[in-house]
């Protein structure tokens, strides 16, 4: 499990080790955005496989940035660490603000996922030479404004700002607040955050400059270089000085967009109509798309729990008729002691007969686990749970059987058994859902399998007394074999579905058409081919 540290100002130098050479072009892959918006993003960071791994907590849900590799970083290994961390913590795997050029890698990695790319997330990315020169007829408006500004204020000059200029910056914000007209909470919060970040003027990690006239700042801007992209995080200019804004944009690019800087990212428009109009007037080279991947598992293709049969056993869905027997199974403390979980910690007071069955059904509805009833001659004698799906075709399984006077339990994991015959996997009992934790061993503790005493072996109720014990495998082996056949059938079904959908790959759906229509009505940019690679 990864160990995450909340982002603070002390972490900037560590984050910059990765972000300074990051070529994703998106503003979220920069140290200042993580610090400036930490009250909203709640970011924390970890390192693994030579990569920076950032986890955010937004609106009550965890979501991960795409890994940022260092010089020897392995993106695939870092993604595996993220997947394992989500499984251990029992949280959904969500990758957000994924660069568009990484979409193909994720689409090939995960069989099932949902993705989205909201228009308001997209960054406005400009060619550096365009903003430095404002050349050509298309920029005649900007040049006219700049010429007027130079004519009205010939003594105004742009210059880099350092730590000694902090009093000037503070006074600029007092002047700016006096003419600030936006009343929304988000706009006011952004202004507070900008002022706070500009207190770091003089840091070697950030670039700050402003237009000065008679010892007073008319504008200020702050940026951070990430690869060949200059991330411009803050741009402010006083109202009433015509042409000061385009003059500042050009002067900032001429001062700092040098030495290999090819792009300037002026970030997204946050859905603000005026801001969108302003950013479009500077003619971006392209909009930086950000994709969100909600990774799913194989349960999305199962509309109902299937029935699996052997010569003597049947595995199928739990029913209302199983309430009493299932509650007795879950209440068996002799069995539960092997898993280190006490259901009473999460028990909400619902009658036992309803509580355990409801939890099992809820886990299945949320695609977290599937509970099979194990039946012998029609009677419920145990359960098999498939849980902790890895979103790449694998899952853990646990099998539990019960006799009249005692309970037995076994667990099998995808990992190979250790030389001692014990399960080599482990999980955290404090992070799993109720229905899973009641059948999950605690970290570092596995129930005996082949080395257990005879009274703890489930095979005694699976094998006829007249048969040699070695001729019939134990319950967990039967379940694993049946589950393997089941997954093979599931894979074949998915292949048939994909083959059937192939003629339509890349074709716009009705939902896509509605989105295009809405964006045309709003005057937005729309790249109709941006996700075609995911549909092939």
Description:
The chain is α+β, with helices and mostly antiparallel strands. It contains 18 helices and 21 strands. It has helices at residues 12-19, 31-36, 38-41, 75-89, 103-109, 128-133, 140-152, 166-179, 185-197, 244-256, 273-281, 323-330, 333-336, 352-365, 434-437, 475-501, 510-522, 532-535, and strands spanning 5-6, 44-48, 51-58, 61-64, 68-69, 94-99, 113-116, 123-127, 157-160, 207-213, 216-226, 229-237, 263-265, 286-288, 290-295, 308-309, 313-317, 369-376, 379-387, 396-402, 407-412. The strands form four sheets. A seven-stranded mixed beta sheet has the order 9-10-11-12-13-8-14, sandwiched between helices. The protein has a six-stranded antiparallel beta sheet with strand order 16-17-18-19-20-21, with helices on both faces. Strand 12 (229-237), helix 10 (244-256) and strand 13 form a beta-alpha-beta unit. The longest helix is centred in the last third of the chain and has 27 residues, at 475-501. The radius of gyration is 30 Å and the shape is elongated. The model is unreliable at 404-471, 504-513 and 515-536 (pLDDT under 50).
Q: What key phrases describe this protein's structure?
A:
536 residues, alpha+beta, 7-stranded mixed beta sheet, 6-stranded antiparallel beta sheet, 18 helices, 21 strands
Helix content: 25-40%
Provide a count of the helices.
18
Strand order, sheet with most strands: 9-10-11-12-13-8-14
Query: What is the residue-mean pLDDT, rounded to a whole number?
Result: 80
Shape: elongated
Taking the alpha carbons of the first and last residues, their distance comes to 34 Å
Structural class: alpha+beta
Unreliable stretches (pLDDT < 50, length at least 5) are 404-471, 504-513, 515-536
Query: The biggest beta sheet, please?
Result: 7 strands, mixed
Tell me the fraction of residues in β-strands, as a range.
15-25%
Rg over alpha carbons? 30 Å
Number of strands: 21
